[in-house]
Amino acid sequence: MKLPTCPNCQHRFTWREAYHAAAKTKRFTYCPNCQTTLYPTANSLTKSALVLAILQLVLIILLPSMDVSIGIAILVLAIYLVVFVLYLPFGYRYKEYEDSLFKL
């Protein structure tokens, strides 16, 4: 697992920089070194959406069907969210142009 790098200046993001860039609600971020506008790749966005979809699947379908107590369900949710937050910066890659999520 590698942290993302800027495609323009090859600056390797620190974990904190990468986390703040990935957690933004905007569709772009700036390189902390050269201030180039960077866009997450379509693959990065797809992976993060897939991970969140799996979380919803586990919470909505699997845990209730297995008669898991609410305490264990909350514990599973907390562990999953901690792992997701720690992994989030490693899952993103950036480009200097915006990728289309759907190829026509």
Oligomeric category: single chain
Please tell me how large the radius of gyration is: 16 Å
Number of helices: 3
Beta-strand proportion: 5-15%
End-to-end CA span:
31 Å
Element order: H for helix, E for strand = HEEHHE
Name the poorly predicted regions: none
Strand adjacency order, main sheet: 1-2-3
The helicity comes to 40-55%
Q: Structural class from helices and strands?
A: mainly alpha
Shape: elongated
Number of strands: 3
Mean pLDDT score, rounded? 84
Describe the biggest sheet?
A: 3 strands, antiparallel
Structure description:
By secondary structure, the protein is mainly alpha-helical. Helices cover 49% and strands 8% of the residues. The protein has helices spanning 15-23, 42-65, 70-87, and strands at 29-30, 37-40, 94-95. It has a three-stranded antiparallel β-sheet with strand order 1-2-3. Helix 2 packs antiparallel against helix 3 (70-87). The model has no long low-confidence stretch (mean pLDDT 84).
